[in-house]
C-alpha cells in the first residue's frame, strides 16, 4: 500500500484515536468522534485492538514519552507523516516485534482505550462484560 492510500483509508481514524495518548483525558466530543470514525470504518473490536496496538501505539507512545515538554494537541501533519512512515514499514519481523511488545507500548493509554471499547459496545447495543 502506498502512502496516499494509507492516508485515505486510515488517516481520519488515526487522527480520531490520537487523543487517547494526550496528557489530558479525552473529552466527550473526542470519544464521540472516535466512535463515529470506528463505525464509519466498520471495524470489529478485534480489528480496532490491532489498529491500537500495531498502527498507532508505536508512534504515539514516543510522542507521549517525549521530553520536549508538555503537549496538549498534536501537529496533525507531522503525526500523519510519522504514522504513514511507521505503517509502510510494518511488515514481516517488524509487525511481529511490535505485536510482541505491544503490551508495553499500549500500557499508558490502555485505560482510555478500555473506556472507548465500553462506549463503543454501548453505542452498538452490546452487553458490557463485568
Task: Give an account of the 3D structure.
This protein is mainly alpha-helical and 130 residues long. Helices cover 71% and strands 0% of the residues. α1 (3-17) packs antiparallel against α2. The N and C termini lie far apart (39 Å).
Main attributes of the structure:
130 residues; globular; mainly alpha; 71% helix
Strand content: under 5%
H/I helix tally: 6
The total strand number stands at 0
Q: What Rg, in angstroms, do the CA atoms define?
A: 14 Å
Question: Mind describing the biggest β-sheet?
Answer: none
Name the average pLDDT.
Answer: 89
Could you give the distance between the termini? 39 Å
Structural class: mainly alpha
Shape: globular
Order of helices and strands: HHHHHH
Helical content stands at over 70%
User: Which blocks of ≥5 consecutive residues have pLDDT under 50?
Assistant: none
Map the helices and strands.
Blueprint: H1 3-17, H2 28-40, H3 45-64, H4 76-89, H5 92-106, H6 110-124
Helix pairs in contact: 1-2, 1-4, 3-4, 3-5
Amino acid at each position: 500500500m502506498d502512502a496516499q492510500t494509507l492516508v485515505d483509508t486510515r488517516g481520519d481514524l488515526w487522527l480520531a484515536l490520537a487523543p487517547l495518548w494526550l496528557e489530558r483525558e479525552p473529552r466527550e466530543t473526542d470519544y464521540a468522534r472516535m466512535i463515529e470514525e470506528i463505525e464509519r470504518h466498520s471495524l470489529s473490536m478485534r480489528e480496532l485492538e490491532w489498529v491500537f496496538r500495531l498502527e498507532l501505539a508505536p508512534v504515539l507512545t514516543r510522542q507521549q514519552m517525549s521530553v520536549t515538554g508538555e503537549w496538549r494537541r498534536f501537529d496533525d501533519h507531522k503525526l500523519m507523516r510519522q504514522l504513514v512512515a511507521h505503517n509502510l514499514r510494518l511488515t514481516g519481523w517488524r509487525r511481529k516485534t511490535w505485536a510482541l511488545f505491544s503490551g508495553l507500548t499500549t500500557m499508558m493509554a490502555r485505560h482510555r482505550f478500555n473506556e472507548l471499547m465500553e462506549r463503543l459496545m454501548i453505542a452498538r447495543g452490546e452487553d458490557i462484560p463485568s
